[in-house]
Design goal:
By secondary structure, this protein is an alpha+beta fold. It has 9 helices and 27 strands. Strands 17, 20, 23, 24, 25, 26 and 27 form a 7-stranded mixed β-sheet that branches. The relative contact order is 0.10. Pathway: Amino-acid degradation; L-lysine degradation via saccharopine pathway; glutaryl-CoA from L-lysine: step 6/6.
Length: 499
C-alpha cells in the first residue's frame, strides 16, 4: 500500500518551509515514527516522522526545495508486501551469528527519552555479548543532558549483538542491541563483542549543514566552524547563521593551560573517567552563567524560631489532612513568591536589549542526585497552597533521584531556591541558573547567641544568600528582597495576611 508523506502543520502564520535534510533515501526500510527528513522555517526546524513502517519509495521534494503546508514530500510503501531495503554493505566476519533454530531475533531500541530530547549517550553496558538475559533485566544505561535512562530487555534470551558501544551517541530511534530469544536461545552462538566502526553511530557531526544555511554562510563569508549548530548531530540551520550574524565577534578563547606533568608514582594511583553528559552540561552552563551575567551575592540571616514553632504545632495535623509532610521549603517558597512581587526585577530576565518581567513564578528547586545537580520547576508556585507546594516538591524530588524527570520539567523556571543546608552547608554563594536573574541559597539552621531585648539568648539562625544579576538587579532591590524573605519567615503570619 502506498502512503503519502506530506508537510505537517508548521505553526501559526507559517506557510512554507525548506527541505533541509533527508535522513533516508529511496529503498531504505523505515520504522513507524522514524525521522525521514527535516524541514526548516524562518524560526524553527520540524522533523517529519514516517506515518507507517515500510520502505521509502519516491522522494518528491529534494533537499533545498521550498514547500508549502500539506505539500507532498515522498511516498512510502507500507504493509507486509513492502520490499526489503537493499543491504548497505557486505556482511563482515564480525556480523552476529543468526539465532539458532527455534529462536527469534529481537531488536533492543532506544526507549522514549522525554519531550524535546532527541539523543543520548550509551554510558554503561551491564551485559556482554553471549550472556543470557531475563525479560526486563537491565541491559544498559543511557545518559541525556539531564537524566539517565535504563534500558530493560524486551524479551528473555541471549545478547547476540551490541550495536551501540559505550560512549557512542544514539538518536531517539536507534537500535542498541539484538537479543536471540526462544527455546533455543541458550545455544545461540555469541557474536563478536565489539561492533565494527561502520555500525557505531558517529559521536560528532557527520552530516552536511542545511542548504539554506550553507547558502547564507557563503553569502556572508562566515566560516561554518564558527557557527554552533542546533540541528540533528550538530547540523547548522539557517536560524543558527542568523543568530551568529547578530552576535558580536567574540575574542578567541585562551587555550586551557596544559596539565602539569605528574610523577610516575602518582600517575599509577590516578583514575580517569570520561565526564558524563550531565556533568559536562552542568559545567558548561555554570561557566556560561559566570561569563554572561554580572553575578553578585548579598547576605542576611533569619531567626527561624517562629517558623519552626508553627511547623511543629501543625505538622502532624497537616500530614493527616493533606497526606504530605510539612517541611521548610513551602515556607521559603511562599516567602520568595511574596518578595518577588515586591521586587519584580529579581523575577525578570534579560533578552537582548530588553528586560522581560514575569507576571508568574515558576520556582526552580535545586536537587542533588547521584548523577548530579538538577533543577525541577514548580510551575505557578505563587498560586499554590502550602500543601500543593510540598506535594509538588516531594514528587519532583523523587523523580529527580530516580532519573525520571523530563526536559520539560526542568525548563522555564523564573527563580531558583537551593538548599545547601541539607548537606550541612553554613554559608555559600549560589550561582545563577541562566537566564534567571536570582537564586536564593538556604543553609543549615544552627543555634547561635543573639541579643534579644538586651539579653543574650540562643536562637535557631540561618544564613540566607541571594545571588543576582547586577545588570538588571540593583543592590537596593537585592537587599529589599532578602529583607522581605526574612520578615516573612520570622513572622509567618505575614504570609497569611499577604504582607
Amino acid at each position: 500500500m502506498t502512503i503519502e508523506v506530506r508537510v505537517p502543520t508548521l505553526g501559526e502564520s507559517v506557510t512554507e518551509a525548506t527541505v533541509a535534510t533527508w535522513f533516508k533515501k529511496p529503498g531504505d526500510a523505515v520504522a513507524v515514527d522514524e525521522m525521514l527528513c527535516e524541514l526548516e522555517t524562518d524560526k524553527v526546524t520540524v522533523e517529519v516522522p514516517a506515518p507507517a513502517a515500510g520502505v521509502l519509495g519516491e522522494i518528491v521534494a529534494e533537499e533545498g526545495e521550498t514547500v508549502g503546508v500539506d505539500a507532498l514530500l515522498a511516498t512510502l510503501q507500507a504493509g507486509e508486501g513492502a520490499a526489503p531495503a537493499p543491504a548497505k554493505e557486505a556482511p563482515s566476519e564480525a556480523a552476529p551469528a543468526p539465532a539458532a533454530s527455534g529462536g527469534a531475533a529481537v531488536d533492543v531500541m532506544v526507549p522514549t527519552l522525554g519531550e524535546s530530547v532527541t539523543e543520548a549517550t550509551v554510558s554503561t553496558w551491564f551485559k556482554a555479548v553471549g550472556e543470557a538475559v531475563a525479560q526486563d533485566e537491565m541491559l544498559c544505561e543511557l545518559e541525556t543532558d539531564k537524566v539517565s535512562v535504563e534500558v530493560p530487555a524486551p524479551a528473555s534470551g541471549v545478547l547476540t549483538e551490541i550495536v551501540a558501544a559505550e560512549g557512542s551517541t544514539v538518536d531517539a530511534t536507534a537500535k542498541l542491541a539484538v537479543i536471540s530469544s526462544g527455546d533455543a536461545a541458550a545455544t545461540a552462538a555469541p557474536a563478536a563483542a565489539a561492533p565494527t566502526p561502520a555500525t557505531a553511530p558517529a559521536a560528532g557531526k557527520d552530516v552536511a549543514d542545511a542548504p539554506s544555511a550553507r547558502k547564507l554562510m557563503a553569502e556572508k563569508g562566515i566560516d561554518p566552524a564558527n557557527v554552533q549548530g542546533s540541528g540533528r548531530d550538530g547540523r547548522v540551520m539557517k536560524g543558527d547563521v542568523i543568530n551568529a550574524l547578530a552576535q558580536p565577534a567574540a575574542k578567541p578563547a585562551a587555550p586551557a593551560a596544559p596539565r602539569a606533568p605528574v610523577p610516575a608514582e602518582d600517575a599509577v594511583r590516578e583514575e580517569r573517567i570520561k565526564m558524563t553528559r550531565l556533568r559536562s552540561t552542568i559545567a558548561r552552563r555554570l561557566k556560561d552563567a559566570q561569563n554572561t551575567a554580572a553575578i553578585l551575592t548579598t547576605y542576611n540571616e533569619v531567626d527561624m524560631t517562629e517558623t519552626m514553632a508553627l511547623r511543629s504545632q501543625y505538622k502532624e495535623e497537616f500530614e493527616k489532612r493533606h497526606g504530605v509532610r510539612l517541611g521548610f521549603m513551602s515556607f521559603f517558597t511562599k516567602a520568595c513568591c511574596a518578595a518577588l512581587k515586591e521586587v519584580p526585577e529579581v523575577n525578570a530576565e534579560i533578552d537582548g536589549d530588553e528586560i522581560v518581567y514575569k507576571k508568574f513564578v515558576h520556582m526552580g528547586v535545586a536537587a542533588g542526585t547521584p548523577q548530579g545537580l538538577v533543577v525541577p520547576v514548580i510551575r505557578d508556585a505563587d498560586r499554590m497552597s502550602f500543601a500543593e507546594i510540598e506535594a509538588a516538591i516531594a514528587e519532583k524530588g523523587k523523580r529527580a533521584r530516580d532519573g525520571k524527570l523530563s526536559m520539560a520539567e526542568m525548563q522555564g523556571g523564573t527563580f531558583t531556591i537551593s538548599n545547601g543546608g541539607v548537606y550541612g552547608s553554613l554559608m555559600s554563594s549560589p550561582i545563577l541558573n541562566p537566564p534567571q536573574s536570582g537564586i536564593l541559597g538556604m543553609h543549615k539552621i544552627q543555634q547561635r547567641p543573639m541579643v534579644i531585648n538586651g539579653e543574650i539568648v540562643a536562637r535557631p539562625m540561618m544564613y540566607l544568600a541571594l545571588s543576582y544579576d547586577h545588570r538588571i538587579v540593583d543592590g537596593k532591590g537585592a537587599v529589599t528582597f532578602l529583607v522581605k524573605v526574612k520578615e516573612a519567615l520570622e513572622d509567618p503570619r505575614r504570609l497569611l495576611m499577604d504582607l
